[in-house]
Amino acid sequence: MLIREHLDYPREQHWRLEYLDVEQLPFQWHYHPEFELTLTRHASGVRYIGSDVEAFGELDLALVAPNQPHTWHAQARDDGRHHEVEVIQFTAGWFGNVATLLPELDAIARWLGDINAGLVFGARSATAAAPLFGALRQASGPARLQALLGLLEQLRLAADVRRIGAVVTPPPDEPRLAAALDHLYRHYREPVRLAELARAASTSVATLKRLFALQPLGSVSAYLAELRIGHACDLLINTRLPVEIVAQQSGFPSPAQFYRLFARHKATTPAAFRRHYHLRDGRKTSPYHHAHPD
Known about the structure:
Elements: E1 3-4, E2 15-22, E3 30-31, E4 35-41, E5 45-49, E6 52-56, E7 59-64, E8 70-74, E9 83-90, H1 92-101, H2 106-113, E10 118-121, H3 123-138, H4 142-156, E11 161-164, H5 175-187, H6 194-200, H7 205-213, H8 220-238, H9 243-249, H10 255-266, H11 270-277
Parallel strand pairs: 1-3
Antiparallel strand pairs: 2-9, 4-7, 4-9, 5-6, 5-8, 7-10, 10-11
């Protein structure tokens, strides 16, 4: 189930760094209005950002855009070693205010503004960034902010990066779209009718269609498909439910529609996807590239 996460900021700060030393990474499908930069060490599992699903290994680094559903899922290691996860979270509004005061940060601000759903960095960038996370944890005062800005600048210049396809994000000044998306996040596994969605957003169906038409995916149905495909990927990877039941539990009205949309989004069949990624098979897989709708 998709959960809206509310983050706490210590000492009235506007960004946060969290370090986790855990035995496993449970599937916790969630979203929040902050950017999230996540470095994962000593884990092997599956990363989900929107409907983008990819296996990851010993060192993984990704940047998630605001309001994108995401999670990392890794089971406990056979050797008992714990997973290490370092997460940096900050709002686009905070960074925009800082960049207004410091024009030297304009390039980073524009880079962040061009990210639709997220970025996945390659091994070279992840390896170079890892010690910067450690330095950031140890820093305090102005040096801590300087370390964060240095890390973001280094990632802005990274060449080994994969851009995740566009996913709708609500503009901060459009509460109707934000309300509509919140309703979709909570009810995407159920039948969703435009009239019901418009009521949740306190607007008309015509206005709702216009608001979604201005977003990257262009329609309610396209965004609904993104959420349902992401949920279906989780079921295919982590359960042995028949594909028809996966389609039903993900909100698709028919198996035929599920097969058609899954092939369009993933450029493969649900059965082939499951064979490639299933966590209970006990084998590691190589990164897998997916097709995304225009």
